[in-house]
Amino acid sequence: MNAHFVCIKVDREERPDIDAVYMNATVAMTGQGGWPMTCFLTPDGEPFYCGTYYPNAPRGGMPSFTQLLGAITDTWRNRRADVAKPRPRSSPS
After folding, report:
1. Which pTM does this prediction carry?
2. Are 39 and 46 in contact (CB under 8 A)?
3. CA distance 65 to 44
4. What CATH number should be reported for the domain whose range is 16-84?
5. 75 sits in which H/E element
6. Which parts of the chain sit beneath pLDDT 50?
């Protein structure tokens, strides 16, 4: 992981505010939340891919965590414009 990613672990009990931001993104992207949660972010901190659990080996239609890391690395290298494009933010109420 360290070869291609800057890994950050958030303690959800110490920083529930940060956990909530990325849990909301995970739910928005996948329709469900839970832990362990993995989010891949742009350098600006915007999540572009999130999920909750990835097995060691592919099963049940899910990729392994290693496969996911390879796919995210490939996407970032070859289709960065697709993931890093600005997204509209909702207006505060």
Report:
1. 0.83
2. no
3. 24
4. 3.40.30.10
5. helix 65-78
6. 90-93
pLDDT tens digits for range 13-35? 999 999 999 999 999 999 999 99
Cβ(11)–Cβ(25) under 8 Å?
no
Query: Which sign does the torsion angle of CA 92, 87, 42, 75 carry?
Result: positive
Give the whole-angstrom CA distance, residue 32 versus residue 44: 24
Separation of alpha carbons 78 and 31, rounded Å = 27
> What is the residue whose two structure tokens read 């999540």?
47
Residue 61: both structure tokens together: 């239609």
Alpha-carbon torsion angle 46, 29, 92, 14, nearest 10: -70
Spatial contact of 39 and 22, defined as CB atoms under 8 Å apart: yes
